């Protein structure tokens, strides 16, 4: 198998993932994923699709991610890895779909409106 690539997005983050056969190395922007995401609950997003398929030591993964914060980046990577795994083997799709790893979370920040300090917040109202 040669390299399979996929893309994942979440909020303002975009993750490009390259999956190939290997021993389970996961590099995010040239660093180990545990070093890039030091918090356990955030780094768990990255390996969740692999744990679901018991394929943690089967593939080497190289990730380029940009934009957003740590949480958005980790969830973008999760989506991209799940998409790449379904390209590799179509039998993985039902298992990943049940856990909602293939669903793009479309929630993004609401834009600021004119005449207001934020999207919905208003200045204090004075009747007189």
Automatic annotation (TrEMBL):
Coiled-coil segments: none
Record bears the keyword NADP: no
SUPFAM superfamilies named among the record's database cross-references: Ribosomal protein S5 domain 2-like
Entry-linked PROSITE patterns: RIBOSOMAL_S9
GO biological process: translation
Annotated InterPro entries: Ribosomal_Su5_D2-typ_SF (IPR020568), Ribosomal_uS9 (IPR000754), Ribosomal_uS9_bac/plastid (IPR023035), Ribosomal_uS9_CS (IPR020574), Ribsml_uS5_D2-typ_fold_subgr (IPR014721)
Keyword Membrane: no
Keywords: Ribonucleoprotein, Ribosomal protein
GO cellular component terms listed in the entry, alphabetical order: cytosolic small ribosomal subunit
Signal peptide: none
Gene Ontology molecular functions: RNA binding; structural constituent of ribosome
UniProt similarity note: Belongs to the universal ribosomal protein uS9 family.
Protein known as: 30S ribosomal protein S9
Native organism: Candidatus Opimibacter skivensis
């Amino acid at each position: 198998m040669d390299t399979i690539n996929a893309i994942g997005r979440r909020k303002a983050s975009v993750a490009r993932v390259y999956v190939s056969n290997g021993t389970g190395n996961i590099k995010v922007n040239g660093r180990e994923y545990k070093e890039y995401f030091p918090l356990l609950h955030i780094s768990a997003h990255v390996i969740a699709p692999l744990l679901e398929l018991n394929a943690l030591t089967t593939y080497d993964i190289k990730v380029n991610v940009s934009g957003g914060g740590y949480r958005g980046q980790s969830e973008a990577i999760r989506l991209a890895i799940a998409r790449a795994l379904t390209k590799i083997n179509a039998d993985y799709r039902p298992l990943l779909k049940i856990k909602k790893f293939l669903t793009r979370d479309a929630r993004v920040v609401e834009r600021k409106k004119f005449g207001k300090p934020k999207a919905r917040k208003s200045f204090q109202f004075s009747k007189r």
